[in-house]
Each structure stands twice: as C-alpha cells, then as structure tokens.
Amino acid sequence: MTAEGFKYKEFAEDLSGQAKAVVPNDLQPQDREYVYNTVKNFCFIAGEALANDKDHSYTVDQASIITQFIGEWSFHKSLDIIRGNVPVQFRDGIMQKIAFTIFEIAKQATFKGLPQDQMIGLVEHHVKKAYNEALEELAKRGALTEQQAQQAASQSNIDEMAKADNEALDNASDLKILKLAAFALIAKKLPNDKMTVLLNKFAQSDANVILQYMQLDDLETKIDPSLLKQCLQDFQTVIPADESNGFAKALRKFGRNVKSVPQDYLLTAVERERPLVSALVKNPENYEKLGISEPLLKIICDHLERKINDYKTKSI
C-alpha cells in the first residue's frame, strides 16, 4: 500500500455520511439515495486506487485531499444533474467523467506541490468544464435537447450552498455561531450514524455550517475555552452514549498512553497549552478535580494522544 495508513473504506463511508446529513429534503427518496451512494462509490474507488498505486506514493493527507475533492464535487454535481432533470440513464456517465477528471487533475496538482487553495480553484475549473462538455456531447447525440442541456448547465449547487451559508452566518448571532462550532467538535467524535441523526435535527443551513467547521483540524484552539466549555456542557445532555467504548475505559487507555512516553517530552510538548492540559498530563487519574466536561475532556485527550503518537513514530 503506497498511502500507508489511509483507511479509504472508512473515509468513503464518512464522506457519504456527511452527504446523507445535508442532502436536501425536497428530493425524492431514490434521488437522495443516488447522491450519497455516488459519493461513497466514487470515493471508495478513488481511495482504493490511490492506496494501491504502484507508480506513485502518497501521504495520508494527500490521498485524503484528493478523495475529498471527489466526494465534495460528486455531491454537488449529482444534485445539479438531478435538479437539471437529466434522465436517469445518463447520470452515471456524466458523473464518471467528472470523477475521473478530478482524480487526474488533483493528482497532477499534488505531484507539482500546488498549495491547497490553488488546487481548489484548478479542480473547480476542470469540473465545470467536464460537466458542460458531457452535457454538450449528450445534446449533440440527441440524447438531450438544447433546452435540457442548458437547464442542467445552469445548475450550481455549490454556489447555492455558499449563498445560503453566507446568509445564515450574516443572520446568526455570535452565540449561535459559537454553538454550531462547539457542536462541530462533538460531531467529529461521533460514529457516522449518530452524527447523521443529530445533524438532521438542524436546519440545512446550520448543518452546512457545522460540516464546514468539522473540516478545521484546529477548531478547538480558535474558540475561547470558557465559552467552549459552557457550550459543550449544554450539548452534553443530548449526546448519545457510546456503549461499546465507555468513557472510563477510554480514559484508562489514555492514562496508559501518557505513561508510555517520557514525562519531560510531554511537558515540553504542552508547555504552551492551557494549564488544565498540563495538569491532565501530570496526573490523568485526577481528571475529575479539573472540572472539565466529558466532551471537552475527550477532545483534549485526542489532542494529547496525537502528540504521543508523533513521539512514538519518531522514536521508531
């Protein structure tokens, strides 16, 4: 496996779960299923190809970015095809052309070391080009009328979502935005099925904002800790418990991991962290006296375990 550690099957399931959470409710059930199955199938195929590429090696981050491009655009363009009333028998052909284009363009951009913001613009340009070319080809064959092709070409779910998200952010209070960000931290830790159930309880514009926040790896560092703690405590009563892996069991595992690396390394690694993080490193068993809510404690433990894993990897 060239992208060692890239769990492409789980990643495809995750992206499909996110799609399922925000597919518009006005679609017919079979169309909704088509959208998230398309996301899952194309992400799985792309992830498998990257993981088994014998000619090139990818890091997990590179493989994830390429696959995520395919997932995001498969979501948007499948909705455009549906809303553009493209007949069912032509959908897969269009989507295959788009997915293949993204796969090749994103790989080339990765090889050239392009920064992600440039990759985003480049992929978007080629997605739109591939989409319009596929519609034009169908029109030339007589499979679509010119009017049908133009109607499908005029659809842009990504622009509609961006517009809706901006309006939601403009109209939302600071407290609401903070709560959505806090919920994003929680949602990142939930299994896909539970995440989907909870996101479906939000208005679609709010669910979209939450999914955007979920993409930020360092989200917890951008929010005032005291406000974050309060929001997480507010949500704590509605978060379903994970019976298969209880909190106490997870914390015991965390404590063993802390003891598996030199204490001076951990203290150095967290010297710029908040005091309660250092206190947790010094004495994990004393967590109850720190007054940290369970969701926040899970986030901190995950953060520290990444540092522990970094140390172990470098020590091999």
- What quaternary form is this? single chain
User: Which of globular, elongated, flat, extended, rod-shaped describes the shape?
Assistant: elongated
Structural class: mainly alpha
Q: Mean of the pLDDT scores? A: 78
Helix fraction bin: over 70%
Biggest sheet details = none
In DSSP terms (H or I, runs of 4 or more residues), the helix count works out at 15
Number of strands: 0
| Share in β-strands | under 5%
CA radius of gyration: 22 Å
Poorly predicted ranges: 237-245
Structure description:
The chain has 316 residues and is mainly α. 73% of the residues lie in helices and 0% in strands. It has 15 helices and no strands. The protein has helices spanning 8-22, 29-51, 60-83, 88-111, 116-141, 146-153, 157-171, 174-187, 192-199, 204-214, 225-236, 247-259, 263-269, 275-282, 294-315. Helix 1 (8-22) runs parallel beside helix 3. The longest helix is centred in the middle third of the chain and has 26 residues, at 116-141. It starts with 7 loop residues before the first helix and ends with a helix.
